[in-house]
């Protein structure tokens, strides 16, 4: 009796499939004999970056912020998306869009909040659920462990004081004098009311961050990089490192965003942070990819251009050798395609990274904002054709119900302009099929 069957699914996509056995009797009748689930598994860390076609996803647990936008009228924490569908439903929807990878954005301050309440398992169990679901569906996951936007929810993101930042816990800002609640500082405005840009929280924070200043968490004082790893990053890696769906880990999102007067010292310092965390990751896994990001400042000097400056941030081991399995990332937004300035940046950075055999991924792309041009089929095609021609992997921003210009699950309206007859989801599906057919 045959108890197994050997198939070679060279054209089968990753994930779970139904294998149906049929038999034909002597008079030609077809009988359904047996049904089996067949799982084709892929180690996504081994795939070339050029084969990553994906999207960002903000999960409500992993993107918890401590301070709500209208704090103190609302008590902590700020947990977004009350109607967000389950992980399995969202991921199946993304797979049905013919995408194969997801960038999961996570906030250290969210994990800190759960830990402070003795509920770290809530955060880690969601990571396990994401990994389980991705394994079963044949999707790859990039864990964007240190996602930040305007540093922390302890700061306002703009002078309107209607939104707060996200990412770092308040313990990281306290030694720098940046915590002033409830009337918080604004991330890009000098804290002393002067016109000195160096007194803005974005400059104070990032220029101290690269010097690895001391912070205190849970009564323990040590350098911030060590706290990031010991308090948070290590737990994420330990929870996900053995999964085939795990592509790897992103070390920081948009460092130095909004800063001024950035110098070679700051590029070098960010390189030391990248090297420190990369070495820690390599102690736990030798195969998962490590993604390190461009310094998102357009006000810098003394590095010989953005390409040479970015080369100073390449993660290295203790002997000064380049860490294996690294990927350089950029986030870029345009208007119906990448801007001429972005193309010039690509042209400057790409040959430098490729000279070190370091692939490139665009980890966020879309039109600039909801106040500008709503992305169209033509615009999406322009983005994808440019990235394909350069061999970049990519992650569209975003699968997230919070913003009107993003792809949403079925609990939210996926149309910004009510007169439009096609959803962003369908647009991306159609254009990706055209460009990568």
TrEMBL record:
Residues 86-402 form the Glycoside hydrolase family domain. Pfam families: Cellulase. Keywords: Glycosidase, Hydrolase. It comes from the Archaea. GO terms for molecular function: hydrolase activity, hydrolyzing O-glycosyl compounds. GO terms for biological process: polysaccharide catabolic process. This is Putative Glycoside hydrolase, family 5.
């Amino acid at each position: 009796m045959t108890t197994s069957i050997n198939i070679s699914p060279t054209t089968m996509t990753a994930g779970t499939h139904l294998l149906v056995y049929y038999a034909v009797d002597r008079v030609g009748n077809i009988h359904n004999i047996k049904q089996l689930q067949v799982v084709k598994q892929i180690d996504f860390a081994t795939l070339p970056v050029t084969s990553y076609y994906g999207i960002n996803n903000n999960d409500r647990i992993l993107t918890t912020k401590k301070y709500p936008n209208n704090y103190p009228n609302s008590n902590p924490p700020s947990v977004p998306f009350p109607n967000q569908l389950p992980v399995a439903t969202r991921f199946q929807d993304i797979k049905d869009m013919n995408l194969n990878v997801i960038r999961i954005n996570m906030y250290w301050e969210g994990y800190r909040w759960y830990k402070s309440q003795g509920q770290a398992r809530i955060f880690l169990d969601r990571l396990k659920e994401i990994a389980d679901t991705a394994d079963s569906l044949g999707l790859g996951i990039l864990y964007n462990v240190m996602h930040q936007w305007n540093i922390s929810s302890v700061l306002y993101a703009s002078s309107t004081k209607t939104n707060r930042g996200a990412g770092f816990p308040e313990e990281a800002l306290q030694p720098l004098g940046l915590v002033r609640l409830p009337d918080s500082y604004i991330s890009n405005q000098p804290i002393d009311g002067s016109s000195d840009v160096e007194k803005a929280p974005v400059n104070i924070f990032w220029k101290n961050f690269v010097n690895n200043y001391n912070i205190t968490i849970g009564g323990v004082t040590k350098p911030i990089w060590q706290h990031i790893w010991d308090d948070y990053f290590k737990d994420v890696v330990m929870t996900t490192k053995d999964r085939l769906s795990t592509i790897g880990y992103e070390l920081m999102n948009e460092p130095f965003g909004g800063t001024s007067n950035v110098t070679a010292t700051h590029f070098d310092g960010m390189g030391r942070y990248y090297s420190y965390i990369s070495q820690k990751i390599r102690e736990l896994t030798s195969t998962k990819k490590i993604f390190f990001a461009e310094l998102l400042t357009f006000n810098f000097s003394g590095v010989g251009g953005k390409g040479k400056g970015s080369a100073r941030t390449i993660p290295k081991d203790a002997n000064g050798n380049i860490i294996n399995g690294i990927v350089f990332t950029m986030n870029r937004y345009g208007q119906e395609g990448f801007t001429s300035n972005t193309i010039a940046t690509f042209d400057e950075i790409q040959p430098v990274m490729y000279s070190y055999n370091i692939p490139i991924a665009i980890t966020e792309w879309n039109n600039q904002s909801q106040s500008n041009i709503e992305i169209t089929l033509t615009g999406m095609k322009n983005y994808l054709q440019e990235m394909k021609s350069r061999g970049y992997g990519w992650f569209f921003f975003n699968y997230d119900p919070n913003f009107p210009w993003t792809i949403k699950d079925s609990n939210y309206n996926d149309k910004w302009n009510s007169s439009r007859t096609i959803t962003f989801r369908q647009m991306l599906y159609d254009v990706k099929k055209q460009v990568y057919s």
